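Record type: monomer structure entry
Structure origin: computed from sequence
Chain ID: A
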Amino acid sequence: MNHGTMAGKFRQIAFLGNHLPRQCGIATFTTDLSGAIAAESPNADCLVVAMNDAGKSYAYPPRVRFDVAENDIASYRAAADYLNAGKIDVVSVQHEYGIFGGKAGNYLLTLLRKLRMPIVTTVHTVLGKPDSMQRRAMSEIARLSKRLVVMSAYGAALLHNVNGIAEDKIDIIPHGIPNVPVTGRSKKELGIEGKSAILTFGLLSPDKGIEHVIEALPAILARYPDTVYVVLGATHPHIRERYGESYRESLERRAQVLGVASSMIFHNRFVSRGEVVKFLSAADIYVTPYLNPEQSTSGTLAYAVGAGKAVISTPYLYARELLADGRGVLVPWKDSQTIARAAAHGRSMVWPAVARRYLQSFEQACSREQSVARVSQGLDIRARGVST
């Protein structure tokens, strides 16, 4: 399919998900994806319907045209009416159970059932053992969506095997990453010139397992005394609201007890993409020591692989797939061949390439048996007694 023709096909593309300045991974993803697709489709109007968490509002940029209160079901109906009133060709939904109201986020279904244009849903968390509500919600999302996007082959297999979703309805598109320049200047700017930098970044929460890296530091420093471990990122807002900074403080105490505090740097803030690029450029090794074996995506890991960094990771699902074939998982020190393979793999994950893959998925959603599907969907809804 001709990329130029495809990109020029769309008049309006809408995105539903969290959006910066809300601080979370989905917000960063929606912001980056909508921006990358806008750059690839300059004639299309890319707009966002943003999800607000309970009791919060944000100073959104102009691309965000409408926001939805997580726990107000009337707000979901209003968002559907807003989208239907426009000339929107396709809606790209960013799905994570926790960002939508109702049991297993089922308020989202109220919105999706009302939409009159094709829906393409990116499934950010694919559960191997969903409860009955989660299973029901995902089945309905799959029924209402023309295409489902996952970021790994494992996620696609789970959707097929656990939820019974047809394989030909699923697109595997990697998590987008920024184009990270390789430069020695970043180390100087960050005050770690001459140091061997290990980096972990992302919102802090106890399932990130950072304490295990700190416990490894004495052995690392014994062999490589010029090492510095940089932990970059604010505590997750929901963790901070419930527990304050207790996790970060426990990490700092552990570093002091082990005598490695002087070889650690905590940057306690939510960082912009520009800052992330600078830190990644300065890092020699990237570590994701996550504790959740079912973690199905990690934007931070994707960023690091795309930057050509040596990567050490616990074997959570996404890491096992992304770092297969010698691209990572305990990458040997100074193994330039392995690092080069990681960099080569990562080039297919830069945002412009990912945006083009999404446009192909949107194109398929808009063209493939659309009229037939619309008629059958209407019959199905009426058969179940649901008003349209």
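Annotation 1: The mean pLDDT is 83.
Annotation 2: The longest strand covers residues 45-52.
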